[in-house]
User: Fold this.
Amino acid sequence: MAKYIGKRLIYMVITLALIATFTFFLMKILPGSPVASADKLSPEQRAVVEARYGLDKPLPVQYFDYMFGLVQGDLGISINQFKGADVTDVILSRMGPSAQIGFQGMVLGTVLGILLGMIAALRQNTWIDYTSTFVAIVGISIPSFVFASLLQYWFGLKWDLFPVALWKDGFMSSVLPSVALAMFPLATAARFIRTEMIEVLGSDYITLAKAKGASGSEIAFKHAFRNALIPLITVLGPMAVAILTGSLVVEQIFAIPGIGEQFVKSIMVNDFAIIMGTTIFFSVFLIVIILLVDILYGVIDPRIRLSGGKN
Amino acid sequence: MTQKFDKIPELPKGSFERITLDAKQAERITKPSVSFWQDAWYRIRKNKGALLSLILFGLIVIMSFLGPVISPYEPNAQTITHANLPPKVPGIEKLGILNGVGTLGGEKVDLYELKNVEVNYWFGTDGLGRDMFSRVWKGTQVSLFIAFVAAAIDMLIGVIYGGVSGYFGGRVDDIMQRIVEILTGIPNLVVVILFILIMDPGILAIIIALTITGWTGMSRVVRGQVLKYKSQEFVLAARTLGASDSRIIWKHLMPNVLGVIIINTMFTIPSAIFFEAFLSFIGLGLQAPDASLGTLINDGYALIQFAPHILAFPAILLSLIMIAFNLIGDGLRDALDPKMKD
Assistant:
C-alpha cells in the first residue's frame, strides 16, 4: 500500500510539473505582450513594467522563478483582469461560492441517485425501474448548461421560486446552481447502484440470508446496499470532474462569483496569469481527488490489488 | 418430509418407447450457425431503446444535410427586418403551437402579422433575422462532423498505440504505459482549454484539442484486450503454423478486439459533442458566422427572456443526439460485450 501511494505521488508530481511547464511556455509563445497596450509605453516605462512582472530576466530564470513560486503556492500576478492582484488571492477569494454549490450538488446528486438506483434495483423491470433508468439516461445526456438554462428560465424567470441569478440571497441563490450540478452525479449514482444492487441481490450470500429468514428490508439495507455502495467510490472521481467542468458554465449562467465564472472571464480578456493559475489549481484539485478516491477504495475494499492497477 | 406411497400407479404398456442414439446425430447442427455480428444485430434489434435511437439518429443525420437545402434561406443570410421571429409552421398553427405568436411588451401578439412578414420560418429567426431552421441543421452537421472526426482520430491512435503496447509487451509496453499514465493524469478540461488557446479558433482547433489526449482511453482498453487474447491458444497455434506478426494482429486479434473498439467509440462521440458545445458556450468554440449546436445555444441563451425559441431548438437537438448516442452505446455494449455470451 505504501509503495503504491508512493508511486502514485511520484506520478502526481511529474504530471503537475508537466502541466506547469507546459502552461508556462504556452504563455510565452502566445502572441502579444501580457503588458496591456505595450506599444504606447516609452522604453523606460516598459522596462519598469517588465521588471515588475519579472519579464526582464532570461527565460530559464523566469521559468525557475515561476516553478519555485508554484511550490510555495504563488501562482503569479494578474495582469489585466485584477490589476496587480496575486492570482492565489484571487482564486482563494472566489473559492467559497464554488465550493458551496459544488459540494451541495455532489451531496444532493449522490444521495438522490443512490435512492433512485436502489428503488429501481428492488423493483426491477417495473415502471419505477424504467422511470429511474430514463431519468439516469437523461441526466447523463443533457449537458449541465442546457439543464441550468432550463432551471433558470422556469424556476427563476417564469415561476419566480428562486433568484434568477447573482449571489445575494444566501442559500436560496445556491439552490438552482446546485440542482443543475447535481444532475450528473444523480444519474451516474443511480445507474451504478442499480447495476451493483442487481448483481449483489443475485449472489449466494443473499440467497443464504433469505434462507435463514431475513426480512426484505434487512436484506436490502444490511446485505445488498452496503456491498453495492463500496464500488460507488470509484465513480466519485469522474463525478468531481463533471462537477468542476459544469461549474464553469453553471457559474457563468447564474452569475455566481466563483472560480469557474472568473476563469471564463479571464479567457475572454486574455489574462494569462489567471488562466494559468486557475488551470494549475484545477489540475491539482482533480489529481488529488482522483488519488484520494483510489487510495480510499483500496483501504475500504481490501480485495482490490492495488499494485496490479486497474484492468 | 416423508411421503408414503401405498401403491405405485401402474403405467400402461407402451407408454415408453426405446430410442436408439445415433452417434452421428449427436454431432448434427440443428440451427444455422450464427456469426458474432448476426448475433449482435439480433440483440440490438431486441433492444427497443437502442433501435429507436438508431432510427432517430439516422433521421437527424439526414436532416442535418437536407435541412439547409430544403430551407429557402441560407444559414448565414441576414434579414434584419425579420429578426427574432418565433417559429411558425403552416398546418399545425391552428393547434396553438408554432403559430408565430410571441410576447411583445408583455402581450401575446402574432409577430408575423405585426411585422408584415409573408413567409414562414419553421424554427423562427435569430437576433439578426437568420433562419433558425437552416442554422440549426447546419450547426448539427458541424457538431456531428467534429465529433465523428475526433472519435475516428481517437480510435486510430488509440488502437495503434494500445495494440503495439499490448502486443509487443516488455520494455516497449513499460515505456508506453508510463507515458499514458502521465497523460491520463492531466485533466481533460485543462488540456482542451490550453490547446484551444494556442490555436486559431475553429473546427480544426477543436478537433486537435479533443484528440490530443482523448485517445488514451481507447489505447488502454485495446491494450487490455490484446494482452488477454495474445496469450490464448489460437494465437499460439497461428504462430506455430508460421503466421507473421501482422497476420496475427489483423486476422486473429483484431476481430476479437473490434467489439470493444466499437463500444468505446460510441461513447467517445457523445463526449466529443458535449465538449464542443461546452467550449462554444464558454466562448472558445467556432467563430461567427459559423455555427455549431454549441454556439447556437450560446447565442440563444443571451436572448432566453425575449425569444426562448432560439435556445430551445438547438438545445433540444443537442439533448436528443446525446440521449440517442448513450442509448445506442448501451445497446451495443450489451450486444457486443463478450462477457454476456458466457
